[in-house]
Design a protein that fits this description.
The protein is an all-alpha fold. The protein has a domain of 133 residues. Helices cover 62% and strands 2% of the residues. Helix 6 packs parallel to helix 7. The protein starts with a helix and ends with a helix.
Length: 200
């Protein structure tokens, strides 16, 4: 189908731009004293001293917040209980099911990255907030990738309308209404994880 090949061409260009963006992001680390040998940030002592003195203490930081903001803290943190459960169940799910389906497992550590906690220009409250966000958003990315790979195996069909955002496997799916390709190529698409295996 002509339309499908055009869509795939656009998706291919998007992937190329994403790869270019990753290179630019890696190059930008040099501006912040990134040590490529140790693969971590090492900040210059002068740089640390310049910004560390501007850190607002934890108590003052909380005091400056509106009462409504402070009162929402227990609600925010209560969400971690189902998040931990989701983490455990999704990890168990892929450990049990993915080998049966012959789907490459998602590496949890690629999504849940905890590194902002060590930033010197954050107070304790900000560090704890960052820890929460790193874990929660990383978990959502991890779960989405597990779900995307599962969807590629069980139901690799695009939606009729363009979604605002799609997971990494979506461009491998069949176009909505393309019955011919679905019936002829479903087995191939279920095995089409070569791009993941290449990067592992």
């Amino acid at each position: 189908m002509k339309n499908r090949s055009r869509i795939n061409e656009i998706l291919s260009r998007i992937k190329e731009l994403e790869a270019e963006l990753r290179k630019e992001y890696a190059a930008s680390k040099k501006n912040f004293y990134y040590d490529t040998i140790a693969r971590r940030f090492r900040f210059d002592r002068e740089y640390i001293e310049r910004y560390k003195t501007r850190v607002i203490g934890s108590f003052r930081y909380l005091w400056r917040q509106r009462l409504g903001v402070v009162l929402t803290i227990p609600v925010i943190w209560s969400v971690l209980i189902p998040a931990f459960m989701l983490d455990i169940f999704v990890t168990m799910y892929q450990a049990i099911c993915f080998p049966v389906y012959k789907i490459p497992k998602v590496r949890r550590k690629d999504y849940i990255v905890i590194d902002r906690y060590h930033l010197f220009y954050l107070n304790r409250i900000e560090r704890i907030n960052c820890l929460y966000c790193e874990y929660f958003n990383g978990l959502m990315g991890y779960v989405r990738e597990v779900a995307g790979r599962t969807e590629q195996y069980w139901c690799p069909i695009k939606h009729a309308d363009k979604l605002p955002d799609t997971h990494s496997r979506y461009d491998h799916f069949f176009d909505y209404g393309d019955a011919d390709s679905y019936q002829k190529e479903l087995k191939q698409v279920r095995k089409d994880f070569e791009d993941i295996k290449e990067h592992e």
